[in-house]
Amino acid sequence: MKDINDTPKIDYNKCTGCKRCVGICPGLAIFVIKFKDKKALITLPYELLPIPKVEDIVIALDREGKPRGKAKVIKVNISNKTNVVTIEVERNLAMEVRNIKLD
Length: 103
Ligand code: SF4
Prior knowledge:
By secondary structure, the protein is mainly beta. It has one domain (20-102): Elongation Factor Tu (Ef-tu), domain 3, CATH 2.40.30. Helix content is 5%, strand content 40%. The chain contains 1 helix and 6 strands. The protein has one helix at residues 20-24, and strands spanning 32-36, 39-46, 57-61, 67-77, 83-90, 99-102. It has a 6-stranded antiparallel beta sheet with strand order 1-2-5-4-3-6, with no helix packed on it. A hairpin with a 2-residue loop joins β1 and β2 (39-46). The longest helix is centred in the first third of the chain and has 5 residues, at 20-24. The chain starts with 19 loop residues before the first helix and ends with a strand. Bound molecules: iron/sulfur cluster. Residues 10, 15-21, 32 line the site of iron/sulfur cluster.
């Protein structure tokens, strides 16, 4: 991006799905979704405390903060800036869930 207010553009021919952008984006605006059979893995930025743990069952929230169901924490990358959490949800929630709340 030339300006921080520009909308990011991803070159899908070059993206390897490494997920590094999720923790780097200052606007917490990038999510990576991987479809896996009837489930979807959503990797999202998470800056709240406490930090979830792998295997935790958490509440999946939509963009408005409304609960959409349960999610299982699959991976947690702790950083000194933005932590990155991967959750597993039902496939039909892949484009709706964008945050989590610990139970
Ligand atoms: S996941 Fe993000 S950082 Fe990794 S290659 Fe794709 S766009 Fe770049």
